[in-house]
Amino acid sequence: MNEYLDVSSEVREALDAGRPVVALESTIISHGMPYPQNRETAFAVQRTVRENGAIPATIAVLAGRLKAGLSEAEIEQLARKGREVTKVSRRDLPFVVARRGDGATTVAGTMIVAALAGIRFFATGGIGGVHRGAERSFDVSADLEELAATEVAVICAGAKSILDLGLTLEYLETRGVPVVGYGTDELPAFYSRSSGFPLEYRLDSPQEVAEMLRAKWHIGLTGGAIIANPISEEFAMDPAVINRAIDQALREAEEHRVKGKEMTPFLLARIVEITGGDSLASNIALVLSNAALAARIAVAYAAGGG
Ligand code: PSU
Ligand code: MN
After folding, report:
1. What distance lies between CA 260 and its chain's CA centroid?
2. Contact indicator for 82, 120 with CB cutoff of 8 Å
3. What is the C-alpha to C-alpha distance for residues 223 and 56, in angstroms, rounded to an integer?
4. Which residues line ligand 1 (CB under 6 A)?
5. What is the pLDDT of residue 164?
6. C-alpha to C-alpha distance for 297 and 213, rounded to whole angstroms
7. Which atom of ligand 1 is nearest to the CA of 27?
8. What is the distance between the alpha carbons of residues 33 and 301, in angstroms, rounded to a whole number?
9. Nearest C-alpha to atom 11 of ligand 1 is from which residue?
10. How far apart are the first and last CA of the chain?
């Protein structure tokens, strides 16, 4: 056990017994959604993981401790503080720990802590990626490097078109990260089921995903994988509406010269404001769907002997 890590007793017992556990991130709580929907979603996601047979482990840094498994009061605190909480990716982790601070972990940060705890499955909304205009800004999310390095499967709804989805796929291919279309032949675009970017690999059941991951990890291939689960038809947004909001948010980011780690939270918050909350309802629905799928994949993986 790592000296900086605290695993809750429930999560520890499940892991020791080889029972399925699903990690959940905290940047989506603090920086990804407004209060109080962020708190309600975090609780609902945990319930959904349980209803589908796994134990949830929400991950964050609290008073400098790496936490796998948060109490409701700890989640409430992150939800209330929102963007005041430090957003913690790989680069930020040692500073927040050394100053005994609090931090909300991104996809990359969550993967690191999950792997330390021995958790291999992680549900979230969307991942970071290669930003539009990255050829000038060099803005490529550390999430992609983490996916190449760390043995955690990330179940998400693809990526938002605040990113350059084509370049993101190219980057993932170069870094050897499997991208699975779950029940789809295309990369889902978060708010909508299709992006126009075909994927090489489609799998249609949790068992098939578990088999692929077992093969990857038992061969000894390092790194994680993306399981891209399209939003349900019922909650998908009109691509024209959402793309207009995204374009406006991107223009504003440029006007305000937003850079670095502020970029993604700025865009996420503006998109919610511009769409008058419609995008938030979709966002919540897809996170719940990903949590259910992640739990079912973790169950299938554990049933196969881990
Ligand atoms: N994309 C979303 N919702 C999110 C994020 C991204 O649709 O909440 C968050 C995740 O925590 C992700 C992080 O890991 O933003 C990526 O930030 P950056 O682009 O700065 O790497
Ligand atoms: Mn970035």
Report:
1. 19
2. no
3. 22
4. 25, 27-28, 32, 89, 106-107, 125-128, 141-143, 160, 190, 261, 264, 268
5. 98
6. 10
7. 11
8. 31
9. 106
10. 19
Which one of 27, 37, 145, 191 would you pick to mutate in the ligand 1 pocket, going by the greatest count of ligand atoms within 8 A of its CB? 27
Q: What span, in angstroms and rounded, lies between the C-alpha atoms of 11 and 119?
A: 9
Q: What is the pTM of this model?
A: 0.98
Quick check: is 160 catalytic? yes
Alpha-carbon distance of 289 to 189, in angstroms, equals 15
Nearest-atom number in ligand 1 for the CA of 190 is 7
Residue type present at position 79 = A
On whether the CB atoms of residues 131 and 139 are closer than 8 A, the answer is yes
**What integer pLDDT is reported at residue 181 of this predicted model?**
98
**How big is the CA angle at 130 (ends 127 and 134), to the nearest 5 degrees?**
150
Query: Which of ligand 1's atoms lies nearest the C-alpha of 105?
Result: 11
pLDDT for 155-209, tens place per residue?
A: 999 999 899 999 999 999 999 999 999 999 999 999 999 999 999 999 999 999 9
Q: Give me the amino acid identity at 14.
A: A
**What are the structure tokens assigned to 214, written together?**
């077992």
What is the pLDDT, as a whole number, of residue 306? 86
* Catalytic-labelled residue, pool 67, 160, 216, 261: 160
Cβ-in-10-Å burial (0-12, 13-18, 19+) of 98 comes to exposed
pLDDT reported for residue 114: 99
> What residues in the chain have per-residue pLDDT under 50?
none
Residue by residue, DSSP assigns 286-305 as HHHHHHHHHHHHHHHHHHTT
Ligand with an atom nearest the CA of residue 140: 2
CA of 215 to the centre of ligand 2 (A): 32
List the domain boundaries for the chain.
5-303
Fold that domain 5-303 belongs to in CATH: Indigoidine synthase fold (3.40.1790)
pLDDT in the model for residue 98: 98
Q: Known catalytic residue: 67?
A: no
Q: Which residues on neighbouring strands pair with residue 130, listed in sequence order?
A: 140
